[in-house]
């Protein structure tokens, strides 16, 4: 199905956050063309009137930088997450550059910022990122297995591209972290060896087994991953090989 793009006018862009460690969040887009099968943000459909499958639509908040500028004038200083219910560096960002413009607006205020993305497009903005006093860039990497990635994250960048992004950020002295969330079927030691040299810390989150993801696991004969004890053993192995860098968030 063709991706449905719609330019919209946002009323607000700097939102109060319920995510631990973040006072605010910025989401320049609604929807995400990465189309990850497990994405919790698909709940946004309830609030936007979209009936298309998750991954088939993106609303583009074309006035996001202007609204952010207005909101920052009266906002108390606090940490900002980019972004919580979309990927701020999904493919449409290459054209619209809303995330880049929002970073430019944030820069004079020097709010602490942490970015989370699956996309190496974040490397485009290293010139801005380096100017923040307190900023971290996280890359979501959920498995070491490209076959699994294609099943659960069909339109997201490859694992290799994400590792390259982490490595490049690290080599440019930018604080980096990895988000293993959700922890998809994997060899945990193999994944650890791929990311360990390039991150300051790693956040690990378990799979939220919705009916949709349950069906995928059963169809692929991955039922052992549905066993809580087995999943916990994988999390433990991740923690063991990552050591003090690892934190389980759920």
Produce a short descriptive summary:
This protein is of the alpha/beta class and 250 residues long.
What distance separates the N and C termini? 34 Å
Structural class: alpha/beta
The shape, in one word, is globular
The arrangement of helices and strands along the chain is: EEEEHEHEHHEHEHHEHEHHE
- Percentage of residues in DSSP E strands: 15-25%
Number of helices: 10
Number of DSSP strands?
A: 11
Average pLDDT figure: 95
How large, in whole angstroms, is the Cα Rg?
Answer: 18 Å
Which percent range fits the helix content? 25-40%
Give the uncertain stretches in residue-range form: none
How would you write the strand order of the largest sheet? 2-3-6-7-8-9-10-11
Give a short account of the largest sheet: 8 strands, mixed
Query: What's the structural domain tally?
Result: 2
Q: Can you characterise this structure?
A:
It is a single chain. This protein is α/β, with parallel strands linked by helices. The protein has 2 domains: 1-133, no CATH class; 139-250. It has helices spanning 45-48, 64-72, 93-96, 98-106, 126-129, 146-152, 159-171, 188-195, 211-219, 228-242; strands at 4-8, 14-16, 24-26, 29-30, 57-61, 80-82, 113-117, 135-140, 175-180, 201-204, 246-248. A hairpin with a 7-residue loop joins β2 and β3 (24-26). α8 packs parallel to α10 (228-242). The protein is globular and about 50 Å long.
């Amino acid at each position: 199905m063709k991706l449905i793009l719609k330019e919209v006018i946002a009323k607000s862009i700097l939102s109060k956050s319920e995510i631990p460690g973040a006072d605010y969040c910025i989401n320049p887009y609604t929807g995400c063309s990465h189309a990850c099968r497990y994405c919790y943000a698909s709940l946004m459909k309830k609030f936007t009137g979209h009936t298309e499958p998750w991954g088939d639509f993106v609303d583009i908040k074309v006035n996001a930088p202007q609204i952010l500028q207005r909101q920052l004038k009266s906002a108390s200083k606090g940490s900002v997450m980019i972004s919580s219910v979309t990927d701020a560096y999904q493919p449409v960002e290459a054209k619209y550059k809303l995330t880049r413009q929002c970073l430019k607006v944030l820069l004079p205020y020097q709010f602490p910022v942490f970015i989370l993305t699956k996309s190496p497009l974040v490397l485009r903005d290293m010139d801005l990122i380096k100017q923040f006093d307190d900023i971290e860039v996280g890359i979501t990497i959920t498995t070491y297995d490209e076959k699994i990635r294609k099943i659960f994250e069909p339109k997201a960048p490859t694992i290799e591209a994400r590792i390259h992004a982490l490595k490049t950020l690290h080599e440019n002295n930018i604080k980096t972290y990895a988000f293993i969330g959700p922890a998809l079927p994997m060899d945990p030691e193999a994944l650890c060896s791929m990311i360990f040299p390039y991150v300051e810390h790693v956040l690990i989150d378990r799979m939220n087994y919705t009916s949709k993801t349950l069906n995928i696991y059963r169809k692929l004969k991955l039922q052992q991953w549905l066993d809580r004890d087995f999943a916990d053993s994988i999390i433990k192995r991740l923690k063991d090989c990552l050591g003090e860098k690892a934190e389980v968030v759920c």
